[in-house]
Amino acid sequence: MPEQSQSVHEARTAAAEAPPAGGVSRRALLGTAGATGLVLGAAGAGVGYAAAPAQATPLSSVGSDRAMFHGKHQPGITEGLQARGHLVAFDLAAGAGRTEAAALLRRWSTTAERLMAGEPMTQDDTDVARDAGPSSLTVTFGFGNSFFARTGLEKQRPSALDPLPDFSSDHLDRSRSNGDLWVQIGADDALVAFHALRAIQKDAGSAAKVRWQMNGFNRAQGATAHPMTARNLMGQLDGTRNPKPTDSDFDQRIFVPSSGSSDPAWMANGSYAVVRRIRMLLDDWEKLSVAAQENVIGRKKSNGAPLTGGTETTAMDLDKARADGEYVVPINAHARITRPDQNGGAAIVRRPFSYHDGIDADGTPDAGLLFVCWQADPLRGFVPLQRKLDRGDALSQYIRHEASGLFAVPGGAAAGEYVGQRLLEG
Q1: Cα(364)–Cα(28) distance, integer angstroms
Q2: Which H or E run contains 409?
Q3: What does each of the 426 residues of the chain score in pLDDT, given as a tens digit?
Q4: How many CB atoms lie within 10 A of CB 123?
Q5: CA gyration radius for the chain?
Q6: Which residues, in sequence order, are CB contacts of 108 under 8 Å at separation 6+?
Q7: How far, in Å, CA of 134 to CA of 265, rounded?
Q8: DSSP structural state of residue 228
Q9: Which of 100, 119, 128, 334 is buried most, with the most CB atoms less than 10 Å from its CB?
Q10: CA atoms of 222 and 137, how far apart (whole Å)
Q11: Please, is 332 exposed, middle or buried when counting C-beta atoms within 10 Å of its C-beta (0-12, 13-18, 19+)?
Q12: How far is CA 92 from CA 106, 148, 149, 293, 300, in A?
């Protein structure tokens, strides 16, 4: 969870635990949606899972939640999912190089630090977020493959940033894929998120122009009676087994180590983000019976439990068969295909946003998932999982991958540094 100042933390704790006249605390009455997103792409109900549900908080304290800009890792990777998000990629302007990129990352880092603290921009603030607190705002920065040639830093480009291979399920719009620079913005308030997006765009000035931009959302805090895994636009509970920062092998799977790695030194404590726009073919999906949908996923729609029985967190029994000899969890079920023990232990942290971009002329909704997953090496995380899904995932006929990107996200900036400084000034 995002760090908070002691005073904010104490205020939230007091507000949450003070019982009303009836004797029941608001913490007991109000919950928050799980920070999850569907098992799509290389994300599985058992492998790439979305971030863990955030703690229950009173609605009045949502705006006071604050994530820290400076730290070992950049914000926006391990925090719980926010209610609103924007993903945006930039290309450096013609003639802009390393010097301009360094100045831009310095501006962006200054702006991100201020906005994440709930402060306005230093100049020309739009006042969009004037009345709101930090609202768990996070701003995360990454570099695309093309950035290194544009800035003369080819020797510093990580081999893990090689372009992703083609997959049979791809129907990619190249104009909405990749980019020199990538920014992920998330917040628990839509206006706070938009305010940050506008500030980042204005800060780009003449140094870079927007290549593509996508908007997403998740369930808002306090929308459920108790903390729980959220549902995606297919109605499925999503993110049941997301790797947790408390897992003993979490860091080695998700973050580049500070030493002993083949990655360049500037990537220490960083991670790699795979970004995919995955359209859900909801008209086709919604024609299926609930039982048929459960067979596609391998889990109960009502509570996320495996079809072999138990609760949401019960281990799936892949060998359990019905009386007719068929597996209870179908051989091509999404949850079976994507389990870590079926993929050499490959795992990713998924931290996506749902999206809805309107309705096509024929009445088809343009809706789905802005899939974002994190790993220490995409060649050992996303790629092998997606290749296996390509070979027979039952879910594949109900989704379509329409855009893609891979970005190197450096470690967090120390106090007095800007993100990427060790690359751009090394």
Answers
A1: 40
A2: strand 399-409
A3: 444 444 434 443 444 444 444 443 333 333 333 333 344 444 443 344 456 555 655 546 889 999 999 999 999 999 999 999 999 999 999 999 999 999 999 999 999 999 999 999 988 899 999 999 999 999 999 999 999 999 999 999 999 999 999 998 899 999 999 999 999 999 999 999 999 999 999 999 999 999 999 999 999 988 888 888 888 999 998 878 788 899 999 999 999 999 888 999 999 999 999 999 999 999 999 999 999 999 999 999 999 999 999 999 999 999 999 999 999 999 999 999 988 777 777 889 999 999 999 999 999 999 999 999 999 999 999 999 999 998 889 999 999 999 999 999 999 999 999 999 999 998
A4: 6
A5: 21
A6: 139, 141, 183, 200, 203, 418, 419
A7: 32
A8: B
A9: 334
A10: 17
A11: middle
A12: 15, 11, 11, 44, 47
Strand locations in 31-168, DSSP E? 48-50, 84-92, 138-144
CA–CA separation, 232 and 402 (whole Å): 18
- The pair phi, psi for residue 209, each rounded to 5°, is -125, 150
Only one residue has tokens 């938009």, namely: 194
The three-state secondary structure class of 384 is helix
**Token pair belonging to 274:** 């795979």
Catalytic residue among 238, 263, 377, 393: 238
Q: Structure tokens of 343? A: 């993929």
- Residue 362 catalytic? no
